[in-house]
Structure formats: structure tokens, C-alpha cells
Amino acid sequence: MSATSIHISALDGIVNVNSLFTLAVFIGLAWNPTDPSNSLIDPAGCSASPKIAEDLVAFHVYSFSCFLFSSLVALGLKQATRLVRHHHHGGEDRHFWAFDLARVNKTALRVGYVVSAVGSVTGSVFLMLALVNVVQIKLGVLGCGDGGGSTHAYAAVVPLVTFVPAGLLIYVCFVFYAFTR
Fold first, then answer.
1. I need a labelling partner for 68 at 20 to 30 A (CA). Which of 4, 78, 89, 130 fits?
2. How many domains does the chain have?
3. What are the helix (H) ranges across 32-148?
């Protein structure tokens, strides 16, 4: 497999993962955060404020924007690695369209990867923040102190804010490694 084919496969992976996250964002936006029957907390307890619901929608939109940006950059890089050319076959000029992998400027490719990775990481952070707000709406506001709902909210948020940044750190390390090679 040529180096350019590997780059195209990596770009396909970025687009596919971003597509899955974008689907999650749309599902999140389709859910009505102000539906009182969809809450798991006691109405007299630590209900989320309208500001938390507003932040939920804002973080979903920011996340969608970042994933779309990252995917468009990756798709642009993928198209830049393809070259349309015509073939000469057996002494005759036969002109037909054929896609061939092109030689691309490695510096431009690396910068594009980094820009796309930054978009994906930023989108993931915003999606994580949106999920923290979902937890606060469904289970109660963090730091409420009621003992019940707040404990469940922390139990849901702690793994989220532990594993997502850890995964993003690993992703950034691999992007940096690929960038320096």
C-alpha cells in the first residue's frame, strides 16, 4: 500500500468518525431538554436552570460546526491527493478519465491533518460539555448537595470527563507522532 493510499484511508477514517459524532449531535438536538416527563429527578430537587438547557443546545451546535469543519478539511485533503489524467495506450492517444494517486506536498498534507484533528478534538470537547449538561438536566445539577440526584450526576459525569480527555490525549499524541514522521 502506498503512502498516499494510507493518507486517503486515514482521511476516510476521520470523516467516518466525524459522521458518527455528528449523528450523535443531531440525536441530542432532537431530544427536548425541557420535557418535564423526561427527567429522573424530583421536581422539588435540584432541577437544571434554563441556562443549562441553553448551553446544551449551544454546545451541540458548536460541536456540529467543528465536526463539519474537520470533515470538510479531510475531504478536501482527500480530493487533493487524487489527480485526473489521461492515458496513452499502445501508441494511440486514448483519452479517458482515470483517477490516480497524486504526489502531494507533505507539509500541506501535515498541516491539513493537524487542522482537521483540531476540529475533531474541539468538536469532541463540545460534545462532552453537552453531555455534562444532559446529565444535569436528567439527574440534577452538579454540586446541588441533595445527596441523591447529585451523587448520580457525579457518577455519570466523572467517567465522561475522565475517559474522553484521556482518549483525546491519546489521539493528539498519535497525530503529533504522524505529524513528525
1. 4
2. 1
3. 50-80, 106-139
Q: Give me the residue label for grid cell 499502445.
A: 90
| pLDDT tens-digit readout, 104-136 | 677 887 888 889 889 999 999 999 999 899 888
Assigned C-alpha cell, 134? 444532559
Q: Which of 83, 100, 77 is nearest to 13 (CA)?
A: 77
In this structure, are residues 171 and 165 in contact, taking their beta carbons and an 8 Å threshold? Answer: no
Q: Which amino acid is at 105?
A: N
Write out the residue range of the structural domain in which residue 114 sits.
Answer: 3-180
pTM, two decimal places: 0.74
Cell numbers for 35:
420535557
Q: What confidence tens digit (pLDDT) does each residue in 70-94 have? A: 888 888 887 777 654 434 455 555 5
Question: Of the ranges 2-6, 21-25, 34-38, 59-63, which is most confident?
Answer: 59-63
Cα 57 from Cα 32, distance rounded (Å): 10
Return the residue matching grid coordinates 449538561: 133
Grid cell of 1 as nine digits: 500500500
- Asked if 86 contacts 101 with a C-beta cutoff of 8 angstroms, the reply is no
Q: For residues 14 and 49, what is the distance between their CA atoms, to the nearest angstrom?
A: 36
Residue 140 contacts residue 150 (beta carbons within 8 Å): yes
Model confidence at 97, pLDDT cuts 50, 70, 90, reads: very low
3-state class (DSSP) for residue 63: helix
